[in-house]
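We modelled the chain as a single entity of 167 amino acids. Its sequence is:
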Amino acid sequence: MLLGVIIGIHGLRGELKIRALSPDASLLLELRRVLVRQADKVEVRETAGQTVRHKGNFLLRLAGVENAESLVGAEVLAVAEDLPRLSAGTWYWFQLQGMTAVDRQLGELGTLDDLFTTAAHDIYIVHGPYGEVMIPAVPQFIVEVDEAKGRILFDLPEGLVSKTDDL
């Protein structure tokens, strides 16, 4: 799972400055190892010390890295087996992204393409026949997530999706 990209180095100890590319990037605060992907090379690296948030990014130090500058531009990914288990009814963003979004009344809404976070809750961004649809990621709207079928079923309130005469 892609978490972020290394955009620079910070400090004298060679901490890597990572820009989040996923809503799940806060996992960097918990993981003890990460995958670092550069061009055609992927390496598992142990973290060294505590990862912290810093000015909208993350600062991460990797064990055994002698030339931190050479890693700028590399992607940082989570090792799948290291991901914390989630409680029933919760998912990582990478598990939902790309799913087909379906509403009980309107049918297929499109593809779940993006997500952004607000103070209250996350918002799913769906693109499809109704244009861009923003759906609050709250339990009362989510009926079912079927990972096998790649589908998320919603029961949306009337008026949330704008209908046009062309549909």
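As a brief sanity check on the tokenised model: The chain has a mean pLDDT of 87. The first strand starts at residue 2 and ends at 10.
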